[in-house]
Structure formats: C-alpha cells, structure tokens
C-alpha cells in the first residue's frame, strides 16, 4: 500500500520558505512605506518653501510707491521699511486677490520674523489696526538676514538708509539669506519700478 501525502519534514520546509518570503515581503513593504513618507514630507516642505517665496515675490511685484503713515497717522514719507528686526518688511501692495472689502485694494503688507517663524500680515494701507489677514508662511526658518540696496556689491542692513532719497521708493535689490530644514538658501529679489 502506497501512502500519499507530505512528510513532517516537507511541511516544515514549506513553512520555513513561506516564513522567509513573508519576512522579506514585509521588510520590502515597510521600507517602501518609510520611503513614501519621507518623499511626502520632502514634497510638503519644498511646497511650503516655494509658496512662501512666491508670496513675497508676488507682493513685491504688486508693490506701489505709496507713502505710508505710522500707527498715529503721521506721514512716514517712505514706501518701504526694511530691517533685520522682528518686522523685516513693510510696504503697500495692490492686492488683486483680496475681495473682502468693497473699498480700496491697497494693502499694507508686513512680513514678520519671530521665534524662527516667518509670517505675513495685511492691513489697510494707512491703518495697521485693521488687520485683514495673517498667515504663517514658514516655520523653523533660521538665521534670516535681509540686505537692501541698488547695487549687489553695496547693500545695507536696513532701508531706508543714510543714502535714502525721497525720489527712490524702493531699493533695486533685496538679498535674503536663511536656513530652512538644514539647508542654506539665498534669494535676490527686486521690485518692479
């Protein structure tokens, strides 16, 4: 009489092979999931960074030579205030995307760098007490430094500087350097005059 079936050794070998295939498949799948999460995080980080720089460029493209007033409504006789303090940029822009008010589309745009966060705030052009929007653009941005001037070889840490003339509303260049997610970045931006 011939018996048909598997021996105990054959069953154990088949189970061992199946276990090895499962372990390798699990390792491959877990590495794939880990890689996907890293790629998604990198894409999100790069997207936030690009949106922040794009917002700044768009605001600068829409900037108008509007002489601002301070919070007490005194004339400042400048169209741009720039420094490396907490409030890094202030100027007036013609915001074509903001339809919240039926009046003027002129908005004072204020870029703020505080606690390694870059924020953008818009107010009425001559009344900072009326805040229209406030958005966090980038988090974990370090060593942000701005320089202003009409020649890239001769930049100042603030604007207007001692060479300021009322006939010049904006500097030709704003040089920005910063670190974001352990990478160093440098941007040269300009205004349309």
TrEMBL record:
GO terms for cellular component: plasma membrane; type II protein secretion system complex. It is found in: Cell inner membrane. Belongs to the GSP J family. This is Type II secretion system protein J. Pfam families: N_methyl (PF07963), T2SSJ (PF11612). The chain crosses the membrane at residues 6-29. Keywords: Cell inner membrane, Cell membrane, Membrane, Methylation, Transmembrane, Transmembrane helix. The keyword Membrane applies. InterPro entries: N_methyl_site (IPR012902), Pilin-like (IPR045584), T2SS_protein-GspJ (IPR010055), T2SS_protein_J (IPR051621). It is a single-pass membrane protein. Its main location: membrane. PANTHER family: TYPE II SECRETION SYSTEM PROTEIN J, TYPE II SECRETION SYSTEM PROTEIN J-RELATED.
């Amino acid at each position: 009489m011939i018996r048909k079936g598997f021996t105990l050794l054959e069953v154990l070998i088949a189970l061992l092979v199946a276990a090895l295939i499962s372990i390798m498949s699990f390792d491959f799948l877990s590495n794939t999931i880990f890689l996907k999460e890293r790629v998604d995080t990198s894409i999100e980080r790069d997207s936030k960074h690009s949106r922040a720089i794009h917002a700044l460029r768009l605001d600068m493209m829409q900037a108008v030579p509007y002489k601002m007033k301070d919070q007490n409504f005194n004339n400042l006789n400048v169209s741009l205030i720039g420094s490396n303090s907490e409030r890094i940029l202030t100027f007036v822009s013609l915001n074509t995307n903001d339809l919240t008010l039926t009046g003027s589309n002129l908005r004072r745009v204020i870029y703020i760098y505080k606690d390694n966060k870059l924020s953008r705030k818009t107010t009425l052009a001559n009344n900072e007490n009326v805040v229209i929007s406030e958005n966090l653009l980038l988090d974990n941005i370090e060593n942000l430094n701005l320089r202003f001037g009409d020649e890239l070889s001769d930049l100042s840490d603030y604007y207007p500087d001692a060479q300021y003339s009322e006939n010049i509303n904006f500097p030709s260049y704003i040089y920005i350097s910063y670190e974001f997610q352990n990478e160093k970045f440098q941007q040269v931006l300009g205004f349309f005059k």
